[in-house]
Amino acid sequence: MRTRVCITIDTEFSIAGAFSDPALRPVAEPMVTCDVAGRSQGLDFLLATFQRHDIPATFFVEALNRQYFKHDPMAAIARRIHGQGHEVQLHVHPCWSVFRHADWRERVRACPRQDDFFGRDEADTLALIRQGMEAFSDWDLPPPQAFRAGNLQHDDALYQALARSGIRYSSNIGLAVFDSGDPRYALYGGRHERHGVIECPVLTYCDWRLGRRPHLKTLTIAGTSFAEMKTLLEQAHRIGLSLVVILSHPFEYIQSRDQDLRHARRHGIAQRRLTALCQYLDHNRDRYTPSGIAAAAIAVAPDHSVARDRPVAPDHSVAPGHPVAPSRSSSPENPLLEGRLLQSLDRLALQATYACYGQAALLATRGGSR
Questions:
Q1: So what's the pLDDT on residue 168?
Q2: At 254, phi and psi to the nearest 5?
Q3: I need a surface site. Which of 127, 141, 202, 314 has the fewest CB within 10 A?
Q4: pTM (two decimals)
Q5: Cα–chain center distance at 133
Q6: Contact indicator for 201, 317 with CB cutoff of 8 Å
Q7: What does the pLDDT look like over 178-209, one tens digit per residue?
């Protein structure tokens, strides 16, 4: 069986500090195009790389930002991505909804946590989802089939709201980014049904251990080396995991010193990682099928195990070097994959060194593109 691999790109604008500093304003297109010396190192780099290696990707496009950006600049971006054959699915950051109110600054001061889905009322969550779906209609795009919550925040109410909205697939969980504490959502990877919605979590894995306790990390281009990705993909295929989901953002492919990204440089490490991953998937299609997330959720064989609504408790007592299966789950769809310590140490050292080098280069070049 081939493992489906979904590269997902959260495509979003930024509040850019506007909630805390009246002098600042949200940032739109630069968060997606990520221009350096007149060349897009974000969206254009992503689309060109995917085209070169024939990789279908999923762009989770944030749709509520038009509450602030009345000229709706995300519409053209979403249509362009769709026109290149990639899945365009719904991404929602609740924080943008506060801009509906003229007194939004007072509301933010009174309730700073504007971007939470966790703990939000189901009816309010459903209203936000439907606003996002309305944006897709206004953009002349097909209705979204899949959903991703901002900050990967999730709770039971979110899945109930998704079921009521008619969206059948989701990718809301990345346990190293956000853990709701609900054992029903302690999901490392694979496919899992919750309230009739098929959840496809961003893969969470163990990159190192303190004694027997694993350190959890969610699989991203920005935070995982290609060597680690290759190790995890080989392990996933070996144990028969049906689906691996990887997370990224356009702005991960540049380094910048400011929130509006006016002073930026190309992030060579991140770009090389994505290129190497796409080359690897392209050259190993006998083992992996690159796929959009809705296509993957639909295409996995009906008899393949899908863990349904049941508690999942992780077992952290298994020896290093082997996939860890949750102790109370019989599903092969929820193993905790294991990275290699030396690969993790190499990645940490390289990232720290490159971050320092990048900041020094930005100071020296004032916008150079090295």
A1: 96
A2: -135, 160
A3: 127
A4: 0.91
A5: 19
A6: no
A7: 999 999 999 999 999 999 999 999 999 999 99
The 3-class SS string of the chain reads CCEEEEEEEEECCECCCCCCCCCCCCECCHHHHCEECCEECCHHHHHHHHHHCCCCCEEEEECHHHHCCCCCCHHHHHHHHHHCCCEEEEEECHHHHHHHCCCHHHHHHHCCCCCCCCCCCHHHHHHHHHHHHHHHHHCCCCCCCEEEEHHHCCCHHHHHHHHHHCCCEECCCECCCECCCCHHHCCCCCCEEECCEEECCCCEEEEEEECCEEEEEECECCCCCHHHHHHHHHHHHHHCCCEEEEEECHHHHEEECCCCCCCEEECHHHHHHHHHHHHHHHHCCCCEEECCHHHHHHHCCCCCCCECCCCCCCCCCCCCCCCECCCCCCCCCCCEEECCHHHHHHHHHHHHHHHHHHHHHHHHHCCCCC
**CB-CB contact of 64 with 299 (8 Å):** no
**Which tokens belong to 335?**
């193993």
CA distances from 182 to 199, 200, 205, 320, 370 (A): 15, 17, 18, 25, 45
Give Cα separations from 46 to 19, 32, 50 (angstroms). 30, 10, 6
The CATH fold of domain 3-365: TIM Barrel (3.20.20)
Q: How much is the pLDDT for 1?
A: 86
Asked if residue 294 lies in contact with residue 89, where contact means CB atoms within 8 angstroms, the answer is yes
Query: Which residue is associated with the tokens 């992503």?
Result: 46
Asked whether 199 and 214 are in contact (CB, 8 A), the reply is no
Predicted confidence at residue 5, as pLDDT, reads 98
Q: Which residues contact 56 (CB under 8 A, 6 or more apart)?
A: 50, 85, 86, 87, 290, 291, 292, 295
- Classify strands 169-170 and 197-199 as parallel, antiparallel or unpaired: parallel
Closest CA to 369 of 284, 285, 230, 253: 253
> pLDDT below 50 — which residues of the chain?
301-304, 312-330, 367-370
In the chain, domain spans: 3-365
